[in-house]
Amino acid sequence: MHDIGSKPALRAELLANRAELSVDVRSAAGRSIRDALLGVPELEMAGTVAAYASIGSEPETHGLLFALWKRGTYVILPRLLPDGDLDWASYEGPDSLVPGPFGLLEPTERARGVDAIASADVVLVPALAVDRTGVRLGRGGGSYDRVLARVSPAVLTVALVYEGELLDALPVEPHDRRVRAAVTPDSGLHLLGDAN
Ligand SMILES: Nc1ncnc2c1ncn2[C@@H]1O[C@H](COP(=O)(O)OP(=O)(O)OP(=O)(O)O)[C@@H](O)[C@H]1O
Ligand SMILES: [Mg+2]
C-alpha cells in the first residue's frame, strides 16, 4: 500500500511514462479500448454514456466517442467549472468540440448541470492509474471524486488506462471514489473490487 503523501510522486512517474509513448501507440491503445468497450453489454444497452475527450498522452477516445454517437448512444462530455467541478453537455460529433481551459476539448452544446451525470447509464473516466480494488488516481483536481459521488453504485464506472497502469494498490484518501472497472488496450475490461 502506498502512502497518501506519495500521490504527487506517483502522478509524476505515471505522466513521465506516458510522455514516452508515441502518437501511434496512443492511437492504437484508443482503438483497442474502443473495440473492447463497444462490445461490453452495459455499453451496448446504454441510452446515455458519460465520457471525455482525450487530450495529450491519454489513450485516444475520439474514435470511441464517434462510434458511440454513430450507433445512436447519447454521449455527454464534461465542461470544467471554475471550482474544479464538472458540468455536462452532449457530444454531437467531432465538430461539436472546442478548446477549453488547460488544453481540454469541451462540448459546445447547452450545459445540463453538474447533476446530469446521474442520468448516465455508463460512466467512462480518465485516470493515470487504477488499482485492483477500484481506487483511481487522477490529475489531482478532485473533479472525478465529485462526479463519481453523484453516480449510483449500480452504474458501471470504467477508468481508461494503459496496460501497466492497472496496479495492485494505490494511495487512497477518504474523499476518493472508486470505479467498478478498468479497461486496458491488451486485456479489455477488468472488473475491480472485493468481489473480483
Ligand atoms: N467532493 C469534493 N469536493 C471538493 N473537493 C474535493 C472533493 N473530493 C476531493 N476534493 C479535493 O480535490 C483534491 C484532489 O483530490 P485527489 O488527489 O483525490 O485528486 P484526483 O482524484 O487525482 O483528481 P480527479 O478526481 O480530478 O481525477 C483534494 O484536495 C480534495 O480535497
Ligand atoms: Mg481522488
Automatic annotation (TrEMBL):
Coiled coil: none annotated. Its EC number is 6.3.3.2. Pfam families: 5-FTHF_cyc-lig. Signal peptide: none annotated. GO terms for molecular function: 5-formyltetrahydrofolate cyclo-ligase activity. The keyword Metal-binding applies. It catalyses: (6S)-5-formyl-5,6,7,8-tetrahydrofolate + ATP = (6R)-5,10-methenyltetrahydrofolate + ADP + phosphate. InterPro entries: FTHF_cligase, FTHF_cligase-like_sf, NagB/RpiA_transferase-like. Keywords: ATP-binding, Ligase, Magnesium, Metal-binding, Nucleotide-binding. It is an enzyme of class 6 (ligase). It comes from the Bacteria. Its cofactor is Mg(2+). Belongs to the 5-formyltetrahydrofolate cyclo-ligase family. This is 5-formyltetrahydrofolate cyclo-ligase.
